[in-house]
Write a structure and sequence with these properties.
single chain; two-stranded antiparallel sheet; alpha+beta; about 80 residues
């Protein structure tokens, strides 16, 4: 008899860590420590972190193409008004 036979534990919607701020994933009957990249991916999967919120290293305000952004804004306004 296994724990699954006795009770059902639903998956959590958030990432849990221990006191050392380490996250683990269950693989069979063992726990494996997540790498940094695996932890970030799990946060994306659970909706705790969004790729769009990730800063781009070395980017500045000068990297924003204002004419393209303005055209997108006009297009979005038209779409919302429909």
């Amino acid at each position: 008899m296994t724990i699954e036979d006795v009770m059902e534990i639903p998956a959590s919607s958030s990432l849990h860590t221990n006191q050392a701020d380490e996250a683990f994933v269950r693989v069979g009957d063992k726990s494996r420590k997540l790498t940094f990249d695996e932890r970030v991916q799990l946060m994306y999967d659970k909706g705790e972190r969004y790729y769009e919120d990730t800063a781009v290293y070395g980017a500045t305000i000068d990297d924003i193409d204002i004419p393209v952004l303005s055209a997108m804004k006009v297009s979005m306004k038209r779409w919302v008004q429909k």
